[in-house]
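re: ur question from yesterday

yeah so i grabbed the chain u mentioned. its 213 aa long if i counted rite. heres the sequnce exactly as i have it in my notes:
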Amino acid sequence: MEKPWTTVLVEDQALLRNVLAKAIRLDPRFELAADVEDGLEGRRVCQEIVPDLLITDVHLPGMDGVELAGFVLNALPSVRVLALTNMKDPFTLNRLQEIGIHGYVEKDQPLEILEEAMVEVVSGKTYFTATIMTNQARLSENPDAFAKVLSPRDQEILCLVARGETSKAIGERLDLSRRSVETYRYRIMKKLGLKRGADLIDYAYKNGFVRPD
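ran it thru and got these structure tokens back, copy pasting raw so excuse formatting
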């Protein structure tokens, strides 16, 4: 028998993490090297182990799963990455596609789908459910879709604005002046055809730039 694929699981919900960890351990094709609940811990473990496969939730404490996946894809290119999430908003799905994720499975899918995705992804293929494909088709067809209108930096700033961060705090985080952040905000509103700050926040929530909770 070939050597099993080393796997790291990052999931903050303890019950789900335990169920998935048990399922992975029961599959002789995989070896679960670590299961952790925090994105920063997930990054540390991946750097230490350099697994064949990373399975990560998208919404995580410490470092969100998209950031974790992006780091691994850039710093550890041999690691295959599979996102597991219940987040289906256009912004999150587009972020996953843009960073070059290898696979995506919703949490409401049967365990058999996840197992199929794991094998496909770790074997060097990609695996995307209909949700992410439908989202990309809609973004492609819509000339006013945020992915076409807003630059990656615009999207990053919109996320932070919608979370309630001040221009000064955003500037410090992104190494920009307060005035530059305010200029970005003005241009974002102009690109989206919005006139009020409240409309910008409403747009951000509707498109998944910030979670309602």
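noticed a couple things. The mean pLDDT is 88. also The chain has two domains: 5-139, 146-206.
anyway ttyl
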